[in-house]
Amino acid sequence: MTVNYFPPAGTDYLRLWTDAVIELAGGEETIEADGWFCVTRSNPDRQNPNAIVTQIIQMNLRGRSEHLGEFLFSLNPQIPTMGEETTFAVNKFDSRFKGYFNVYFQLELLDQGKTLINKEPVVIEGVFGALPPIGAIGEMAPGDRVGMYDKDNPDSEPVMYMLATRKIVGQYVTGDYAARKEDYAAVKEQASEFCQTGRIGSIAEV
């Protein structure tokens, strides 16, 4: 009998930290940002019980760059960020699943009043032991180079390129109970508080 290692379909608000190598006219720079993201997952399909569909539906990552100034990573609302998780090594708890996301985001350069978008996906892949993938690392493949374009002039030359990025998933933004009970309004409020202050009131983490 096939053992289903996937949790039921659901939605999770999780903390997220990222660093990225960007290429600009002045050279390369490694930038860092942290905040939160929200991801939903489906139940396995009967025709393909070893895979589930996933989608990132919200993301809010803030940081500061020498070349870019204050910036905010969020999702491009015009193109969905979809992915898939599959069972990988069933008997190895640290590498049970592998997955990917085709990420379409917008990078708001807050000091410059400009927003950049990618027209080709930034593909983030990883191998991890559980869902949600707390503690997991997702990365671009070596050699990938994705152009970032001015949102107001997308047919112009890229303003910069993404050369590499690494994303590390943290604990729940709020307590597990609120997320599992689909108390999304409260979770979003607490996620916003975390993004601004780096902490969540007296909510216990799991």
**Regions with pLDDT < 50 over 5+ consecutive residues?**
175-182, 198-206
Domain tally: 1
> Span from first to last CA?
32 Å
Shape: elongated
The CATH topology comes to Porin
Oligomer: single chain
Main sheet summary: 8 strands, antiparallel, barrel
CATH class category name: Mainly Beta
Strand order of the largest sheet: 1-2-3-4-7-8-11-12
InterPro entries: DUF6073
Pfam families: DUF6073
Can you tell me about this structure?
- With 206 residues, the protein is mostly beta strands.
- It has one domain (10-193): Porin (Beta Barrel).
- 9% of the residues lie in helices and 50% in strands.
- The protein is built from two helices and twelve strands.
- An eight-stranded antiparallel barrel has the order 1-2-3-4-7-8-11-12.
- The protein starts with 9 loop residues before the first strand and ends in a 9-residue tail after the last helix.
- It holds the Pfam family DUF6073.
- InterPro entries: DUF6073.
Topology:
Elements: E1 10-24, E2 27-41, E3 51-65, E4 69-75, E5 81-87, E6 97-103, E7 105-109, E8 114-117, E9 122-128, E10 137-139, E11 146-150, E12 160-172, H1 176-180, H2 184-197
Antiparallel strand pairs: 1-2, 1-12, 2-3, 3-4, 3-5, 4-7, 5-6, 6-9, 7-8, 8-11, 10-12, 11-12
Quick structural gist:
The protein is mainly β and 206 residues long.
